[in-house]
Amino acid sequence: xxxxxxxxxxxxxxxxxxxxxxxxxxxxxxxxxxxxxxxxxxxxxxxxxxxxxxxxxxxxxxxxxxxxxxxxxxxxxxxxxxxxxxxxxxxxxxxxxxxxxxxxxxxxxxx
Length: 111
Known about the structure:
- With 111 residues, the protein is mostly helical.
- It has helices spanning 2-40, 46-59, 73-84, 88-93, 97-110.
């Protein structure tokens, strides 16, 4: 009985840790997707970026994945707000994926 309880405890702890890890990666994933879109269309609308993030994030998951993450529109909007709050001059300075990710990550964490 003790072994079963121990195994269940380990299983539950592992599941909770996996859920926390997924939640922590969501902003980084959304930033990465937004940067890919923003480099092609820096002055895209909020709806354009939201649709890009939603489409790419949901398409990148395997249909048979056990722990599928749902699209978090609120989180996506925070990432988009970070981009759209940059001035046009600031957005024009961002010319690479890495620059974009660094800029958005810094702004996202500050906001």
